[in-house]
């Protein structure tokens, strides 16, 4: 276990990892596509408008993280303070800015929204508490400095890919729902550029936190949860876009997967 954080937090991190492995197994072995966005389908109960669902499910993390950030001294800007601030910035954008641009998004089943809300509440509490515990316990080092660079790189490419996809949706007709993303950013190499950007972002975050187990668990859960979705998207593109294979992209890991 990580020596940086308390036993209860490490237990919570371990549970998150178990849930991540279970989700990944369900999506890969049983080929279950989480029913939101392009995979929304009947049979999953009542639906919530896409914009409202997005805001409600993501809101717990920034609210909790901001409340915990207000209780600490960030004037020294040690690695945990920087990580805390970047966590808040990411989720303010994720919960309250990005959803405002959703147009004609497919509604989300309330059960999916409830699961996402539960995760964001759980993870927001875990990360916020961990970051408070790390105050003064993680110093700037080659690991944490590299982590900051990796996190910023991933965050940039995550946002770039998200808005590239949004631009495609706005310019494509319903008859041309599937259009190959242009060679912008990580789309040059993978179909799931937004997913890869987020995985890289939280991997850098784990490094910035000095390898604390809750941060590592969050990065791993992210990869286990959205990695299979990137594979599903790639298969969808190959099936529905003529000549997509010729672009030479892989799903989520350049040149490999």
pLDDT under 50 segments (min length 5)? none
Shape: globular
Q: What's the overall average pLDDT, rounded?
A: 90
Strand content: under 5%
Instruction: Please summarize the sheet with the most strands.
Output: 2 strands, antiparallel
Radius of gyration from the alpha-carbon trace, in angstroms: 18 Å
What's the helical proportion of residues? Answer: 55-70%
Structural class: mainly alpha
By DSSP, the count of extended strands is 2
Number of helices: 8
N/C terminus separation? 30 Å
The strand line-up of the biggest sheet is 1-2
**H and E string:** HEHHHEHHHH
Structural summary, described in words:
Strands 1-2 form a two-stranded antiparallel ribbon. The longest helix is centred in the middle third of the chain and has 30 residues, at 142-171. It is built from eight helices and two strands. It has helices spanning 7-29, 50-58, 60-69, 79-97, 110-133, 142-171, 193-208, 213-240; strands at 47-48, 108-109. The protein starts with 6 loop residues before the first helix and ends in a 17-residue tail after the last helix. By secondary structure, it is an all-alpha fold.
